[in-house]
Specification:
Strand order of the largest sheet: 1-2
Number of strands: 4
Oligomer: single chain
Radius of gyration: 14 Å
Number of helices: 3
Structural class: alpha+beta
Helix content: 25-40%
Order of helices and strands: EEEEHHH
Length: 74
């Protein structure tokens, strides 16, 4: 999941993201926060490079968040 703010020219000024990691099984717990991980964790586990189109400084901060509450408040 991701949220972004753009400047007047449409360029991304700031962004926030969070990843979720679920194994393929049934879950009785419906709290997404229990499964929140950083996008960096998703990248490490999958070998993908996500958000590569963002500037390096924004990409770094976006990919490090693993706090569900922080994401919800963005």
């Amino acid at each position: 999941m991701t949220g972004t703010y753009r400047d007047g020219n449409g360029e991304v000024e700031s962004a926030c993201s969070i990843g979720f990691w679920f194994v393929h099984q049934e879950y009785s717990d419906s709290s997404y926060g229990n499964y929140a991980v950083s996008v960096n964790t998703i990248e490490e586990r999958t070998g993908l490079d996500l958000f590569s189109n963002l500037s390096d400084s924004i990409e770094e901060s976006v990919e490090n968040n693993s706090n569900w509450q922080s994401f919800q408040n963005f």
